Amino acid sequence: MYLCRFQTSEQGVRLGLMRNGTVYDLSAIGQPCFATLAGLVRESATTPLATLLSHAPLSDLPAIPLTTMGCPARPQGTNLLPPVDHQEVWAAGVTYAWSREARVREAAAKEIYVKVYEAPRPELFFKSTPDKVVGHQDWVGIRGDSRWNVPEPELALLLNPRMEIIGYTIGNDMSSRDIEGENPLYLPQAKVFRHGCALGPAILIAREGVDPGNLAVKLHITRSGQTAFQGETHTSKIHRKLEELARYLGAYNDFPNGAFLLTGTGVVPPDDFTLQDGDVVSITIDGIGTLTNTVRQM
């Protein structure tokens, strides 16, 4: 089962449960905890999410075929939205050996990335406010003041206020590698900008038969209809335990509506590659789905 958010021209934003190609309107239940993603995430701190959803009367709810849903850019009809409402998005850096090596190659201060890979404390940084996140089939941006831009495909965790992992989705951590490489203190400018973070298409409920430590992560970029780059990594190569990353994020911090945490990237195009306007980026993670976005020069 998957959680999603969608919007109709008549009823506005709704929370949905996606199952076997059908989206059930959880908001129609009429209970506060099913009205929004934030409400359900808050409630999962006291009652397991799977238990909450098992009580949803799906046969009595409005059902919409997933194939009839469009993207947020479509003005009319029923559209799939990014699976985030009031959650901040954070990210963990240098969690794969590949990421450490790539950062060393791009950076002026090379030793910093080696140290953070080996240190007990992980690198965690703020990635996006909810309103800046885009979803499946929306566009992602590349900065006009950068000459080296890449997507970073990542497993994303949905955390409840207790920092428990309650779901998984796909993340695209768009990055300006030349800006970060010039000076590590420029990381926010390299990472945090409008249309710089994509999540979706939906949230796989944790413990739904998927082992987050055993998933293939595939990146495919097309340009003018031709493959410009493709690569693959595996979540088993993440250097840290996912629960450890969540614990550090929650230390001395509060997330009353939960949070998303990107877990790092292990596959990025080579150093002579940069995204161009019109490229199409597709990220596939086993058991979760495919997140596709078109690139736009900003």
Structure description:
The protein is of the alpha+beta class and 298 residues long. The protein has two domains: 2-81; 88-297, Fumarylacetoacetate hydrolase, domain 2. It has eight helices and 19 strands. It has helices at 32-35, 37-43, 49-54, 97-106, 111-118, 177-182, 187-191, 242-250; strands at residues 2-8, 12-19, 22-25, 63-65, 79-81, 88-93, 123-128, 133-134, 139-142, 149-150, 153-159, 165-173, 175-176, 197-205, 216-223, 226-234, 259-262, 280-285, 289-297. The strands form three sheets. Strands 1, 2, 3, 4, 5, 6, 7, 8, 11, 12, 14 and 17 form a twelve-stranded mixed sheet that branches. The protein has a five-stranded mixed sheet with strand order 9-19-18-15-16, with no helix packed on it. Strands 10-13 form a two-stranded antiparallel sheet. A hairpin with a 3-residue loop joins β18 and β19. The mean pLDDT is 92.
Number of strands: 19
Unreliable spans are none
CATH class designation of the largest domain: Alpha Beta
Label the overall shape.
globular
Q: Portion of residues in helices?
A: 10-25%
- What is the averaged pLDDT score? 92
- In the CATH hierarchy, what is the superfamily of the largest domain? Fumarylacetoacetase-like, C-terminal domain
Alpha carbon gyration radius: 19 Å
CATH T-level topology of the largest domain: Fumarylacetoacetate hydrolase, domain 2
Structural class designation: alpha+beta
The number of helices is 8
Major beta sheet summary: 12 strands, mixed
User: What fraction strand?
Assistant: 35-45%
